[in-house]
Design a protein that fits this description.
It is built from 12 helices and 11 strands. α2 runs parallel beside α4 and α5 packs antiparallel against α6. The N terminus is likely disordered. The protein has a 6-stranded mixed sheet with strand order 6-7-8-9-11-10, sandwiched between helices. Strands 2-1-3-4-5 form a 5-stranded parallel sheet. α3 links the parallel β3 and β4. The chain has 2 domains: 198 residues, inorganic pyrophosphatase (n-terminal core) (Alpha-Beta Complex); 117 residues, Diaminopimelate Epimerase, Chain A, domain 1. The protein has 336 residues and is of the alpha/beta class. 46% of the residues are buried.
């Protein structure tokens, strides 16, 4: 696997992480706030593999409103989760998953700063290498790909539950194998995980074929205000919209249910870049961006305090949608 500079992850780093984990009685795991399938799948899959080997595992994410998104409540291993307030204050070994910066750990960031050893496992090119040792591979389709290799190096077993978690991260970050990240290595990993006994059709239904009725009017409101700006994004076109708390409130729709709006908006032929701003329950606007390849959205999002990949990135804003888009527009330059 390749590290952030394009070279393979150093064998010494793999060996150090394996040694740290084998010597740790109670590893503490963490993923980024508002966890997606890759973050939670990587953490729970690895946690289950460790627990099966006799480790006492603690896992969490640093959201104030601590709750697993409904779409991911089918994942095994949630018995490992504790609220941030119950997380070890000074873990001897802390391992983070899919978090490109320490800030993305939310309420768990202070614990990361006090950890004896901090292992960072990720696949984002924007990773700031905030740990004491890193397994970061931007060429990997998902963080769960790095985790699968680590499980193998530790000699741990991937049973159906572990495979379900890892596959969820792989299938979500590749867009059900539709995105360019769906490399031969990603497909080969999927084959290995399916052979462990998971059921792809059941996972697909949980992730993409379910939503509460309230999602439909909220989606309608977002599409009703969508804007197409063909001359923006270096002339490649920008399409954008937003979903506010006020949109969700009448329908009692949780914030995490609107994640899929970007997948509808990004289909527009006339725009390379799609943007959806989603207001959370605290009033922060979380901005999701997608590119078809002509624009590197990770550079734009990175300049605004976020990050991600060239074709999928995000950031957070305290400004209203119009002002946030005004700050983003001039940063949407060509991919070259």
């Amino acid at each position: 696997m390749t590290a952030t500079n394009g070279a393979p992850i150093a064998e010494a780093d793999w060996e150090q992480v394996v040694e740290l984990i084998r010597g740790a009685g109670s590893p503490a795991l963490a993923c980024h706030v508002s966890p997606d399938g890759d973050a939670l799948g990587a953490m729970l899959g690895f946690g289950l593999a460790l627990a099966r080997a006799g480790k006492k595992v603690t896992a969490s994410f640093g959201d104030r409103a601590f709750s697993v998104p409904r779409l991911l409540r089918f994942l095994p291993g949630q018995e490992l989760l504790v609220e941030p307030s119950a997380y070890p204050a000074e873990p001897s070994l802390m391992i983070t998953f899919d978090a490109s910066t320490m800030e993305r750990l939310g309420l768990l960031a202070p614990y990361a700063g006090k950890a004896g050893e901090l292992v960072v496992i990720d696949h984002h090119v924007s990773n700031t290498r905030f740990g004491s040792v890193h397994l970061v591979d931007p060429s990997a389709a998902a963080t769960t790909m790095v985790v699968e290799e680590l499980i193998g190096r530790l000699g741990l077993t991937i049973d159906r539950d572990v495979a379900t978690c890892l596959y969820t991260g792989l299938v979500t970050d590749t867009g059900s194998f539709r995105h360019s990240a769906a490399t031969p290595a990603a497909h080969a990993m999927a084959g290995r995980l399916i052979a462990a006994g998971l059921h792809p059709a059941e996972i697909a239904r949980e992730l993409w074929d379910r939503s509460p009725f309230g999602y439909l009017p909220v989606l309608g409101a977002a599409l009703g205000r969508v804007r197409l700006e063909p001359s923006e994004a270096a002339g490649h076109g920008l399409v954008w919209t937003y979903v506010s708390r006020a949109d969700r409130a009448p329908h009692g729709l949780p914030y995490d249910e609107v994640e899929g709006v970007i997948d509808v908006v990004r289909r527009v032929d006339e725009a390379d870049v799609a943007v959806v701003l989603k207001e959370d329950d605290e009033g922060t606007w979380n901005v999701s961006t997608r590119s078809k390849g002509a624009v590197d959205v990770s550079r734009a999002c990175g300049a605004l305090g976020g990050g991600g990949h060239a074709r999928a990135a995000g950031f957070s804003s305290s400004l209203p949608p119009e002002e946030t888009i005004a700050a983003l527009r001039p940063l949407l330059t060509g991919a070259g």
